[in-house]
Amino acid sequence: MTELYSRRSFLAGVLTSGTLSAGAGYVLTRREPVDLVLATGNDPTGGRQLLVTMWNQLNPDVQIHTETVNSSTRDQYELFLRTKADIFNLDVIHIPRFADDERIVPITPLDGNPPLAAVSRLSQRAGRDDFWAIPFNTDVGMLYRRIADKRVADPEPKLADLLTTAPGQFAGQLDTVGPQTEEAFVVNVLEQALAQDDAILTEDGVLSFSLGQWRQALGPVAAAIKAGRVLDQAGEGSTTRVFQQSGLRYMRNWPVSFPAVERAERTKVSTAEIRLGGLPTGIIGGQSLAVSADSPHREEAEAAIRFLTGKSAQLLLTKYGFAPTGLDAYINQRLAESLPHLQDIRVAVESSRPRPMHKNYAAFARVFAEHTRALLQDGEQLTQRFISDIQQELG
């Protein structure tokens, strides 16, 4: 695999092409320096911070300071607002609440860099050309599989089949130990349900309220966990560790984990290759950059967002493992050569389903996790209370 762009080579390349230099010109006449605060979650890849560093090098009078906010689905809204930020790097599930409460303002993306349709619908204003937030990176559930011998045919399996045909060889985020692992659990449960019943969550993120449908869709995974055929982990980190330490064949995880997993596994004699494939229907995620309604520097914040989400920025983020938001990165020849699984990610993104895009999503996720964890971990059958509770939060 081709090594990542260095800071110097990437910056030199984009400056030569003129792609990023246009974003710097407008600040040259400023008389007073501006400090922009970017509230964001943690990024272990370093890709996001590299882009921020590039912006700061190009714009000495408009500097971005990153405030890392360690939050969960339940508390991101409250914790992000405490930072007094100019820019929010929002998990897409939080956009409806920030917009509904008028905490962010609309922003128009640059022409010629449209996100994929599945990505746009999470951030775009309904019936409008502008957005509540500009997509920074997208994400979608993927199936990792370990290849011991490339000479042996190894067709890509279906997620539903792994519950019965690969006992003890599949790990997923099908348990939770608190708010920090709750969202991974919700996403994995939805993907398992979709693998059994594609109609349980629509392309617009509308959930079925049929109790019988949910019982039938989650019955096979509950049985597999009870029989020990599936390794149910709490969170992405735990899933990755058990996949690597136990030499498992299969794991469900996000694309952003691939570079670190692939680097670690390529040194093992027992691993010829780690391949990435799509689920029957993955849940789409990602992050988008929004301008705070309270920012006194909206013009500068918008310019910074356009820089951080532009075509060249997308190329860099893709090399760091992020799933790109627009078509340009997916059809880039250099990226295709170094990241052969990129087309699998594109297909997975375009066929993905969103979680319910509702201002009360955090409350919905809490009650959804409570009921489904009781089913999968404690063997408690879903009741009509499950349906009434999620209806109440999404009503």
TrEMBL record:
InterPro entries: SBP. It comes from the Bacteria. This is Extracellular solute-binding protein.
